[in-house]
């Protein structure tokens, strides 16, 4: 999980309206800027500049960090559906950077982990993770829309992985391969136990008895 750095747009700025937000959706964007240096830090500078006008969003994600520009209990102007639009007023806006000097796959992976954290924090279902296009028809996130369903599926897959990682956190390294197989096969739901348990499952695994 990439580090999240809070670097808020000053209160009172045109693009920080201060409208209260209780997020029930997450809106995914691409920045639309492939210039070298148009990473999260570059967008943090931009969003605090007069050039941003009334545009804002909550998080910029690149391949190595996440910068937060607006608190998640305040609306940002990212969905293009106006001051009373449901996109702006019910969703957290996540911008995925596409700078040519960055690693897009890693930026997307970081965004997926952030989205999962936000879903958990605000109890938002995966069906409410939507594209910018969902609100206004704008072709955004332009790099992800051609494979939108696969992107959503990869969020679900990563959720499962993280669930398993959490369950395995206390299992000793040497017993993890066997515990992971038993979890994946749904033979057990809780992989935690005592040393005897870990030794038995590891022996079974080494004998090839856990396929
Ligand atoms: Zn967008």
UniProtKB/TrEMBL annotation:
Listed EC numbers: 3.5.1.28
Q: Which residues form a coiled coil?
A: none
User: Pfam families from the xrefs?
Assistant: Amidase_2
BP GO terms, sorted:
cell wall organization; establishment of competence for transformation; peptidoglycan catabolic process; peptidoglycan turnover; sporulation resulting in formation of a cellular spore
Lineage top rank: taxon:
Bacteria
What Gene Ontology terms describe what this protein does at the molecular function level? N-acetylmuramoyl-L-alanine amidase activity
Give the reactions, separated by semicolons, that this protein catalyses.
Hydrolyzes the link between N-acetylmuramoyl residues and L-amino acid residues in certain cell-wall glycopeptides
Supply the alphabetized keyword list. Cell wall biogenesis/degradation, Competence, Hydrolase, Sporulation
Under the heading InterPro entries, the entry gives: Amidase/PGRP_sf, Amidase_domain, NAMLAA_amidase_2
Where is each N-acetylmuramoyl-L-alanine amidase domain found?
A: 13-161
Q: Which family does it belong to?
A: Belongs to the N-acetylmuramoyl-L-alanine amidase 2 family.
Q: Which PANTHER family match?
A: N-ACETYLMURAMOYL-L-ALANINE AMIDASE AMID, N-ACETYLMURAMOYL-L-ALANINE AMIDASE XLYA
The protein in question is named N-acetylmuramoyl-L-alanine amidase
